[in-house]
Amino acid sequence: xxxxxxxxxxxxxxxxETAGPAFSPLYRQIKVLITRELQAGAWKPGEAIPxxxxxxxxxxxxxxxxxxAIDELAADNLLVRRQGKGTFVATHAEQQIQxxxxxxMPDDGSARDMARRLLDCRRVRAPADxxxxxxxxxxxxxxxxxxxLLSGAKPVVLDEIWLPGxxxxxxxxxxxADYKGPMYGMFETEFGVRMIRAxxxxxxxxxxxxxxxxLGLPVGTPLLSVERLSFxxxxxxxxxxxxxxxxxxHFYRNELN
Length: 257
Known about the structure:
Strand content: 25-35%
CATH architecture of the largest domain: 3-Layer(aba) Sandwich
Radius of gyration: 21 Å
Number of helices: 8
Largest sheet: 6 strands, antiparallel
Helix content: 25-40%
Order of helices and strands: HHHEEHEEHEEHHEHEEE
Distance between the termini: 37 Å
């Protein structure tokens, strides 16, 4: 795919010009340009981007400026540096990326690979609260799916996932069942939707009867409720996920910098 034309870059040479609120450091401008090309699909997930030297020549800036922009994109998990190989578009198919949004860890420190069990997948009209979160109209077509994540044979997470209907046209239970990789990997390769960041709300809730039955727990068992809104490029919301976590033998882990 051809690259998106780069708009002119304006660098303020006079320090007085840098004080205004509209000023953006040069490397940040380059970061925006590279992000636009990622959004446009100039380089696919898992594909190498041009070298720093090539990008510097293309954008008519120093290699150091490009390196700083790429450093930030790597910190944002949009790009991945590989020693001796180059820089690649991050993909949820990679082991270190696919669990980026799943913070549940087993108490014994064992591997956190979890089996998936799809409960249902259907196209419905968006309820008002879901439409508001996904920035669409109430009554628009959305995809609703429910699944269990299991550690061994034991259900640990009950997920209810809402997706906007248009970007995920053609998503069915059969396609989900046939796909063997991570769900976000399927979203980016088959539907062109990449999750790049998420915001979460966490609270404790008692298990109601339907949830308790699916998780194999007594009614009223304390659960961790995690509501996550995931965004793609341009801060566009593309997934609302409401999960109920059984933390009897797991804990929720986050790292703060």
